[in-house]
Design a protein that fits this description.
The structure is a homodimer of 324-residue chains. The first copy, chain A, has 11 helices and 13 strands. With 324 residues, the first copy, chain A, is α/β, with parallel strands linked by helices. Chain A has one domain: NAD(P)-binding Rossmann-like Domain (Rossmann fold, 3-Layer(aba) Sandwich), CATH 3.40.50.720. In chain A, the strands form 4 sheets. Chain A has a 7-stranded parallel β-sheet with strand order 3-2-1-4-5-6-11, sandwiched between helices. Chain A has a two-stranded parallel sheet with strand order 7-10. In chain A, helix 3 links the parallel strand 4 and strand 5. At the A-B interface, helix 3 and helix 5 of A face helix 3 and helix 5 of B.
C-alpha cells in the first residue's frame, strides 16, 4: 500500500515508519527537514522517499498526496502546556491546516486518513478507565482542538466518503522523544537528570497517567493498514494507571545516576487522572501484550544516556528540495 | 442584574430581552442595527439600552461589556446549510470571535456567559430522546463548532473561574424568525406559502424534529438569571418528536391558504432524527408546560400573514452610533 506519513521524521511518526517499512509498504515521509538531514530515519535511507515541505504550504502538501492510499497525520504544532493560555495557537496552527489537509486528501482520492488524537486530553477528568463510549469533556485548548479535529474527520467521512481512523493515545514515551519540548514527563525527567538538574514532580499518588511505550503505539496503529475500507475511533493506552509518585520510584530503581527531585501540587492544566481502556483496538491483535513500564523506562534511559550516534551527516538533497 | 444581550435584536435574542425586561432586569442590547432602527424591540424603547456595534470589533465589544453581570451570546453568523460545504466559515465567523468574547468577558469580570448551542446538530444522529449524558457526535461544521465553543466555555470556567450556562436548543420557531435565512422549516414554509410557492418537504415519517416554541425557549433560559453563581449544560426542546410529514399535516389543518408541496428524500445535512430530553432544565420550573405545536403554528402563521406594522421608523442615533 502507498502510505504518506506527515511528520514522519518525528517521535511517533518515525516509529510508525519503521513498522510500515517492516511490513513491506511503499512509504513516503513528509517533514520539514530544516537541516536537510533526517533526525530519526537515517537507517531507512534508500528504502523510503523523503519529501521536504511545509505543512501550511498547500502546494507542498498537494504534491505529496498524489497517488497515496493512506495518510498518517502526525504533525502537531503545539503541546498542552504551550496553548493553555493561548487558545488561538491551536486554531491557527493545528485546526485550520488539518482541515485543509482533509480537503486536499479528499480531492486527491486518498482512501483513508489516520489521526493520532490525545487520550490524555480529550476525555477530561475521569476517575476510572475510560473506553470510547465515554463523553469527552476536554478542558484544555489542546484537547478541545484534538476533539474538534476528530469531529471534522467524521464530517469528511459523512460529506465526502473518505475513511478515517482515530487513535486516542495515552502518554507515549520511548527513544526519539524530543528532549527540547515540554511534553512527555519521562523524557523531560531524563533530560534534567542528564543535565544534573532537579526534576520537577507535579502531583501525588492520585495523579495517574497511562504511559504507553512508543513501539506498542506504532505497532497497534498498523491496524489501519489492515482495514483500509473501514473507519474507527480507538483508545490506545496500556490500561494501567501509574501515579507520578510511582513513576518517581521506578526512576529511582532503574536510573543509574543520582536523582534530585522536588514535589509540587498538580498544575491546573494537568487532569487528575486518565487511564484508557483499549480493549476495542487490542482485540484486533490476539497475541499482543503491552510492554512493562519498568523494562522500557530502562531501555529509554539507555537510549538517552548514550552519546547520540552521528545521525547528522548531511543527506543529499534532490532538485525539488527533497532528500534522496 | 445587569444583562448584556449580544444579538438581542434577533429572533431568539429579542424574545429573551422581553423576558428579562418583564423580570425587571437592567438590559443592554448589542447588535448591528444596520438601518439604525430596531427590528424587533421597538416596543422596548426607553426601557432598555441599545448599543450598535460589530461583534468582530474588539473595542465595540469591550465597551459594551463594562459593568455587566451576565452576557447572553446570541450572535451566530451562519446556519447548518451555509457551512455544510465550507467549514472555514464556522471557524472564522463563529469560533474565533466567540473565544475573543470569552477572553474579554473574563477581563471585564463578567460573572457568567450564557451560550445557546444547538440540540439539533451537536448530538448527531440519534434514535431515541437524548439527555445531556449522551456522547455528542456532531457531523456538520455548524454542530462541530457549536460543540467546540461549548468546550471553550468549559475551559474558561476551569482556567479563569467564569460561570457559564449552555442551552442545547431544539428547532425553535415562532414570531420574528427571519424569513430570509434558510433556517427554520416552519418559517421557510410560511414564507413560501405567502409567496404562492410550492413548499419543499425533505424527509419522511422517520425524519423527526423537536420543534420548540420561541417563548418557551426564552422563558426557560431565564434559569441562568436565577443561578448566576453556578454553571450547567441543558437540553432545551419539547421532548416530542414531530415528523416532517406530520408537520405538513398540521400546516394543512391550520393554514388558511392553499398549500402546494413537493416531498423529497432527506438531504445529507439533515440528521435522521433528533428529540431532546430536557428534564434537567424543566425541573427548575415546576409549573411549566410546553405549548402545543398546533396552537403555536397557528399563532406564528397569524403573525407572519399580517402586514408588518410600521416597525421601521428611524430611532435617533446618539453620538457613539448607539440608538437612544
Amino acid at each position: 500500500m502507498k502510505i504518506l506519513i506527515l511528520g514522519g521524521d518525528g517521535f511517533i511518526g518515525s516509529h510508525f515508519v519503521d513498522q510500515a517499512v517492516s511490513l513491506g509498504h511503499d512509504v513516503t515521509v513528509f517533514d520539514r527537514f530544516p537541516y536537510e538531514v533526517s533526525m530519526n530515519l537515517e537507517h531507512q535511507r534508500g528504502k523510503i522517499r523523503f519529501i521536504s515541505g511545509e505543512f501550511a504550504n498547500r502546494d507542498d502538501l498537494a504534491k505529496s498526496l498524489d497517488g497515496q492510499d493512506i495518510v498518517y497525520h502526525f504533525i502537531c504544532a503545539t503541546n498542552p502546556a504551550e496553548s493553555w493560555n493561548d487558545p488561538f495557537i491551536e486554531i491557527e496552527d493545528n485546526l485550520r491546516p488539518s482541515i485543509k489537509l482533509f480537503e486536499l486528501a479528499v480531492s486527491k482520492r486518498v482512501k483513508k486518513i489516520v489521526f493520532p488524537s490525545s487520550g490524555g486530553t480529550v476525555y477530561g477528568p475521569q476517575y476510572k478507565p475510560v473506553d470510547e463510549k465515554a463523553v469527552p469533556i476536554p478542558l484544555s485548548p489542546y484537547g478541545i482542538v484534538k476533539l474538534a479535529t476528530e469531529h471534522f474527520l467524521l464530517y469528511f467521512q459523512e460529506h465526502s466518503g473518505i475513511q478515517m481512523d482515530i487513535y486516542r493515545i495515552g502518554n507515549p514515551y520511548g527513544p526519539r522523544q524530543p528532549l527540547k519540548r515540554a511534553q512527555g514527563v519521562i523524557a523531560v525527567w531524563m533530560r534534567d537528570i542528564l543535565r544534573g538538574l532537579e526534576i520537577q514532580v507535579y502531583g501525588d499518588q492520585n495523579t495517574l497517567r497511562d504511559y504507553v511505550y512508543i513501539k506498542d503505539v506504532s505497532y497497534l496503529m498498523t491496524h489501519s493498514l489492515n482495514s483500509p475500507a473501514s473507519s474507527g475511533i480507538y483508545n490506545l493506552g496500556s490500561g494501567a494507571g501509574t501515579s507520578i509518585i510511582r513513576l518517581l520510584e521506578i526512576f529511582q530503581t532503574v536510573i543509574d545516576m543520582p536523582i534530585k527531585y522536588r514535589i509540587h501540587p498538580k498544575r491546573q492544566l494537568d487532569n487528575t487522572s486518565i487511564v484508557l481502556d483499549s480493549s476495542k483496538l487490542v482485540a484486533h491483535f490476539p497475541c499482543f501484550e503491552f510492554k512493562r513500564l519498568e523494562d522500557k523506562i530502562f531501555e529509554t534511559w539507555n537510549y538517552f544516556k548514550l552519546p547520540r550516534p552521528k545521525l547528522y551527516r548531511k543527506l543529499s538533497v534532490g532538485k525539488k528540495g527533497n532528500l534522496s
